[in-house]
Amino acid sequence: MTLPFFVYGTLRPGAYNHDRLLLGRTAAEEAARLPGALLHDGPGYPYAVPGEGTVEGTLVTAAPDAYGELLGALDRMEGDAGYERAAVEAVRLRDGGTVRAWTYLAAPGTALGPLIPTGDWFRACPADHGRGRP
Asked: Where does the UniProt annotation place the signal sequence (predicted)?
C-alpha cells in the first residue's frame, strides 16, 4: 500500500534525518496534525502513542521513483529506534481535509520520556533535538 508519511520529529523539514533521508526524495511536504495521539520526549527524538491529544508534524509524499527505497530506509531507522510503522486514518491538513498515512508510533515496551503537552516537539524542545546534528 502506497501512503504518504506523517512525520513529527527528526524527519520534519529542517531536522537532521529529513535532510539525510528525505531531501530530494519527496514530491510534496505539508504541515499536518495527527489527532488521537500524544507526544513524549525521548532520547534525542520524540515518540508518539495513541491517546487523547494531537501531534503536530508534516505530511510527506515520497517521489514515486523513491517510494520503495525510502520506505525500507525509514522502516530500518525507525525500527532500530523503538518505533513501529502504523497506518493512521485521519491526518488533518491545514485546509481541513484528512488523509490516510503511515506514521511511526512507539513500540510496546518502549521507555517514554515526559509528555509534550503541546504535541509539537520543535516548539516544546527549542534545543537542537536533531536539527543540524552530524
From this structure: none
* Secondary structure element (H or E) that encloses residue 78, with its range: helix 67-80
CA distance 128 to 60: 22
Longest dimension (CA), the chain: 38
Model pTM score: 0.91
**pLDDT, one tens digit for every residue, the chain (134 residues):** 899 999 999 999 988 899 999 999 999 999 999 999 999 999 889 999 999 999 999 999 999 999 999 999 999 999 999 999 999 987 887 788 889 999 999 999 999 999 999 999 998 876 655 544 33
Report residue 23 as a C-alpha cell.
Answer: 531531501
CATH number of the domain within which 118 lies:
3.10.490.10
Q: How do 26-40 and 83-93 pair as beta strands?
A: antiparallel
Q: Is residue 108 within 8 Å of residue 95, measured between CB atoms?
A: no
- State the CB neighbour count (10 A cutoff) for residue 110: 15
Structural domain contains residue 131? no
